[in-house]
Design goal:
CATH topology of the largest domain: Jelly Rolls
Helix content: under 10%
Order of helices and strands: EEEEEEEEEEHEEEEEEEEEEEEEE
Number of helices: 1
Radius of gyration: 32 Å
Structural class: mainly beta
Strand content: over 45%
């Protein structure tokens, strides 16, 4: 292109317009909302996300399950229902893209479900509670806890029963003594998860209601992969079984309640609030001179294979009640 130069001009500066670069697309921003907490049996909630784009429009929304459970009704909408939540913490992630393909930085929100505090049980009064929140909770009473210790699992602090060989066999037990906290007639509740089950070779709960060495009166055993409630009758070594037929599922939390009476007594076994098995017995299962309970693995050493040593059980929230 020819540009005319005025006559007599010595130095001429010619300015050309520099093309303006297109604006840089700005990334959209998301907020997955505030963390939520509910009490079971409620197991659904609403995910309420917010997204903005300063120089365009949001064209794609996606909600994802990061951990836990949950069925997202409309994962491509900012506000949607989520159902089927599980106990513990369930985490969800929100991300979006805009009309020019820019993706947001994801944001996460948690929905935590917990058990409702149990109301006082009619006819019973609480006498003792152990939440296993510290190692001291494990070692307060005499016990043979082997390799067991207090650990954190998810949102829980629990007693992890892991046996080791001691003088009396493979053990990992927490023990509590004295009829003031362990009544002759009452109830025991606790949460339990079996992470590795040694079949037909352990107690996960047993009591010693007499001083003559009789044990397992009552006790909860594993029998062919199911819960088995037993009692040692007279003569010693004679066992009464109250089989449940309920298969033990690994890595599942159970809430156990055992209502009992020593002596000429009874047992009622509840699992997750449902009465599963009941029975009565006669004979000397207690002489009134004191007793103790053991929570944890109590099995037999099986040599080099040492299958018993692989047992892995979690316990939480042990509570004793006295019948009134």
């Amino acid at each position: 292109m020819n540009i005319p130069i005025p006559l007599g001009a010595k130095n001429v500066t010619v300015d050309f317009d520099t093309p303006t670069p297109p604006p840089v697309n700005q990334v959209p921003v998301v907020d997955a909302g505030k963390d939520q907490a509910f009490v079971l049996p409620l197991n659904s909630a609403t995910l309420s996300g917010v997204a903005s784009d300063p120089d365009g429009v949001i064209t794609n929304v996606i909600w994802e399950v990061v951990s836990g459970t949950g069925q997202i009704a409309n994962p491509n909408q900012l506000t949607t229902k989520v159902s089927g939540l599980s106990k513990g913490t369930n985490v969800f992630r929100l991300s979006v893209t805009d009309n020019q393909g820019a993706a947001s930085k994801p944001d996460e929100v948690s929905i935590t479900l917990t058990d409702a505090p149990l109301p006082p049980t009619p006819g019973y009064v609480e006498t003792f509670r152990n939440p296993f929140n510290t190692q001291a909770d494990l070692t307060t009473n005499n016990g043979q806890y082997g390799n067991g210790k207090v650990i954190t699992v998810g949102d829980r602090i629990v007693f992890n029963s892991r046996p080791a060989y001691v003088s009396s066999g493979m053990r990992s037990e927490w023990q509590t003594s004295g009829s003031s906290q362990n009544p002759e007639e009452g109830a025991l509740e606790y949460d339990v998860m079996y992470r590795y089950i040694v079949q037909n070779n352990c107690h996960s709960l047993q009591s010693h209601p007499s001083t003559d060495g009789g044990s397992g009166s009552p006790a909860i055993l594993h029998e062919d992969g199911t819960f088995d409630i037993v009692n040692q009758d007279t003569p010693r070594g004679s066992w009464t079984h109250h089989r449940t037929g309920i298969k033990i599922i690994a890595n599942k939390w159970y809430k156990v309640r055992l209502e009992f009476k020593f002596g000429n007594g009874y047992v009622r076994f509840f699992l997750d609030g449902v009465l599963i098995s009941k029975g009565s017995w006669t004979g000397k299962v207690g002489d009134g001179s004191g007793h103790y309970w053991k929570i944890g693995f109590n099995g037999a050493f099986d040599g080099d294979n040492n299958e018993a040593g692989k047992s892995d059980i979690l316990y939480d929230n042990v509570v004793f009640y006295k019948k009134v």
